[in-house]
Design a protein that fits this description.
Layout (H helix, E strand, L loop, with lengths): L8 H23 L3 H20 L3 H6 L16
Helix pairs in contact: 1-2
């Protein structure tokens, strides 16, 4: 499955940091026995991690937002 890139630069870095932060929050919640909160934090962490690693966000696409600096980040796409 291939996605158009629409997340880049500081936005991508912020999403990666948020993914780590929500993962820590999920682990902390699970250790305290708060399963619902831990599961919710884990889902959010997965979403931000997916956005950061694939450089794609469905909400950005729906809203027409593109935070990439380079409109064509793949130098081999024309080959």
């Amino acid at each position: 499955m291939e996605f158009d890139t629409n997340v880049g630069g500081r936005d991508r870095l912020a999403r990666g940091v948020l993914a780590v932060a929500f993962t820590v929050l999920a682990v902390t919640a699970f250790r305290k026995g708060k399963r619902a909160g831990g599961l919710l934090a884990l889902v959010v962490a997965f979403g931000f991690g997916f956005n950061a690693t694939t450089c794609f966000c469905g909400l950005n696409e729906t809203l027409g937002i593109d935070t990439t600096d380079d409109p064509d980040p793949d130098p081999f796409s024309d080959l």
